[in-house]
Amino acid sequence: MSADEPRISLLGTSALLFDAPGPTELDTQRRIWALAEEAGQWPEIREAVPGMNNVMLSFVRPPSSLTSIEARLRSAWASASALKLEGRLIELPVVYGGEGGPHVADVVAHTGLSLDDIAEIHSAPIYHVYALGSHPGYCYLGGMDQRIATPRRKIPTLRIPGGAVSIGGGQTGVSASPGPSGWNTIGSTEMRFFDPASDPPALLRPGDSIRFRIAAVIR
């Protein structure tokens, strides 16, 4: 299979994963959103969930053959146009460093940048919400400046708090709830991303955007 072709793989007998070719970019992700919207209307599909550069399709019932679904997916992807979802822009004040940024020294050491530089670079872009996943309310974001890209931690942290702002490889994200993480936590925000009593329970959705604002830098 060519690297320019999508990859389709089974997830047990009840679902499959469609992986788009190429790097994760906003235009590609917008095509992912379009593919998920179209495939979600097919009668044999229970749900179409967009991920980072992929779509998971769950079946109404396990198919006897994947041939026709694979063919429809490839055809739909080839003709998919970028779907520009009009979302909201959410501003998140972040305290960089201090107790809420326990791994910022590792990012400083890897990048050779100062804490002030990292805060400025991290807060400069408008980040697009590509997908939700990992845990309820968590957003996969695109748009981080690669000058502050830092490898994931060799030994994961057993627990980071909700609102932890972290960098993992070429991505950044904000933890929606307490839990383990292999990313480098550089700061914290007070925003609540998931509330099961709300409708919808997740604060953000694909198409929304985030702008981080420097609330403070603590050395």
Automatic annotation (TrEMBL):
Keyword Coiled coil applies: no
Domain Carboxyltransferase: 6-204
Entry's transmembrane regions: none
Swiss-Prot/TrEMBL keywords: ATP-binding, Hydrolase, Nucleotide-binding
Pfam family, one: CT_C_D
Recorded superkingdom: Bacteria
Leading EC class: hydrolase
InterPro entries linked to this entry: CT_C_D, Cyclophilin-like_dom_sf, PxpB
The keyword Hydrolase is assigned to this record: yes
EC number: 3.5.2.9
Single GO MF descriptor: 5-oxoprolinase (ATP-hydrolyzing) activity
NCBIfam families: 5-oxoprolinase subunit PxpB
Official protein name in the record: 5-oxoprolinase subunit PxpB
Species of provenance: Bradyrhizobium commune
Encoding gene per record: pxpB
